[in-house]
Amino acid sequence: MSQNISETAETPKALSENLAKEYSATEKVPHSEARNMTFIDMFATWIGANANNGTWYIGGVVAGCSFGGALAVTLIANPIAYLFMALVGYMGYKAGTSTMALTRPAFGVRGSSLPTLVNLTSFIGWTAVNTFIAAISISFLLKDSLGWAAFGEKNSAKSMIVGILIMSVLHLASISLGHRSVKMIERIGMILVAVLGIWETIVVLQNVSLSQIIHWRPTASLSLPFGTAVDTMAAFSLAWVTAIAEFTRYTKKKTSATVAPMLGANIGLFWFAFVGIIATIAAAITSGTYDPNNSDPSTIASKLGLGWLALIVIVITSTTANAINLMAAGISLTNLTKKVKAMSALWIVTVFAVLLTFVPLLFGSFLDSFIAFLDYLGMVLGPLIGIMVTDFFLVKKRVYEVPEFERVEGKYWFSGGIHWGAFIAWASGVIVYLLIHNLPFFTASIGATYPALILSGVIYWILSSFRK
């Protein structure tokens, strides 16, 4: 009780500092006015995170399962992922720290550095992916206004480079005030997303009937196995799980930390994946060719004649998603070193993401790079999340002692700062993923991501029981 009183009885100066402060990874956000993310804020944030060009693109990719298969994949893979997101969201709400700080009780004070590096590269990678897709939209706008070559055409590098630089400026603005600027952007983005989603759904169904879309089938060579599609969708959605506590640590109520993001994420993803699925299939029907390489929203919008307004909103929704990516990457950096403050870390990761965005220009297929990236995420993040949830809810019984997160020779120090049991469980999950990922049973049914996640959690729970 005394702790709660001391946290809420703040001086006006302390209150002002808490409201303006961006907390580093292991700093606990006090239960005070600093916790200023409401249910609506969290709902809007996770709609904005998922209703964007990346989700449209992933919808176009899984359209290779046909309409019914793609819809089933979306309705199965994503709710499972967002259930885990709600669980980790609760962990962030309860402890008041970032997601990567929450890996310390499982992996050790020093051991948490490796999952943090994985998370850091993941979100910088996601920023680059979304930026590249948004730059494609800008290249089409530059073609209409200046006559420059658009993406996919000869000599399009100039328009893509300009597009990447424009997106980078927008990203810097989106994280300029930390979670506060993200909150403002997501509220605006939610309105734009609603307008775009309704409009584009209507336009697509005016061009091609729903019956045609339902009965369309890809050629055998481009057909996507159901289990492979589950892995693709699962990796896409699980990537958000390791960003959730960066925001739920600023919530005052459990429902804001669990129900709101889970609802927002599911609605946002299903809506825009649905738009991506029907738009890509509609483009395939009208053109006579299905090519998942061209399932990005800008190319589809151009084929369907949606106009410049669609391209502009695609750019804006990319900014709403990347604001969250950059927040997660920046705060992850502060879990590696305390020498970098939270706001400085946000600027650093933004610059790195800009540089990484140019990499796809060097390769012939953006789709190949994207799928390889998702395979990597499913392989490493699934087992990591399984261990985190198992540790908090089953091993530690929902109690983490935040002051111990940094203490040498403390409760979470284990052996030299590393809990080797967690790494054995993590490696086991990765190995299982690699072994079953391409087996016919798993590619045709449940995929490899969720089995690897569950197995890693079970192995961790067994190994942890021996320590008692």
* CATH fold-level topology of the domain at 41-367: Hydantoin permease
Strand content: under 5%
Q: Give the total of beta strands.
A: 0
Q: What is the end-to-end distance?
A: 30 Å
Instruction: Calculate Rg over CA atoms.
Output: 22 Å
CATH architecture of the domain at 41-367: Orthogonal Bundle
Brief digest:
Pfam families: Transp_cyt_pur. With 468 residues, this protein is an all-alpha fold. The chain has 21 helices and no strands.
Features:
mainly alpha, Hydantoin permease, 468 residues, disordered N terminus, globular
Describe the structure.
- The chain has 468 residues and is mostly helical.
- The protein has a domain of 327 residues: Hydantoin permease (Orthogonal Bundle).
- The protein is globular.
- The relative contact order is 0.18.
Give the SSE map.
Blueprint: H1 2-8, H2 12-20, H3 39-50, H4 53-62, H5 66-95, H6 104-107, H7 113-146, H8 157-174, H9 179-207, H10 210-215, H11 226-238, H12 245-248, H13 254-257, H14 259-287, H15 297-303, H16 308-336, H17 342-357, H18 366-395, H19 420-436, H20 440-444, H21 449-465
Helix pairs in contact: 3-9, 3-14, 3-16, 4-11, 4-14, 5-11, 5-14, 5-18, 7-8, 7-15, 7-16, 7-17, 7-18, 8-16, 8-17, 9-14, 9-16, 11-18, 14-15, 16-17, 18-19, 18-21, 19-21
